[in-house]
Design goal:
Keywords: Signal. This is Secreted protein. It comes from Amycolatopsis mongoliensis. This protein is mainly alpha-helical and about 140 residues long. The protein has 4 helices and no strands. The relative contact order is 0.08. The longest helix is centred in the C-terminal third of the chain and has 35 residues. It has a domain of about 90 residues. Helix 2 packs antiparallel against helix 4.
Length: about 140
Amino acid sequence: MRGTTWTRLALAGCGSAACLLVAAPLASAQTTSPAPVAPITLSPEESQQVCGDWVPKLQKRAENLQKRINGGPEVAGSVANLKARAQDQRAAGHNDRATKLDERATKRQGKVGELNAAKQKLDAFASAHCKPAAPAPTK
């Protein structure tokens, strides 16, 4: 009987401690405001890598995604392709699948605005922080 009492007390203590560990961060999270975000500083090498590698890759990726979304019915993943597939499913009597494809097409069309905003941010970053390469000195 003695082991059972100690086991119960240990379980009750662990349960209380677990409740306190869970409840304490939740209570403190409600009363604090988010910390301000500090600016990011880059070394010249990191800046060169961002401007030379990452920004062009991200710009190309956004451009390719926009081409795919706006592509014709023959382009896999385009809005037109999804709508054509929905028509085929509807013609075959699969209305649930056609509805899902139409919803995907609508959602994908909504991504164009996000892509345009991302491209504008990338262009603004590139124009503000990426300087064109200096010409090599001539002898």
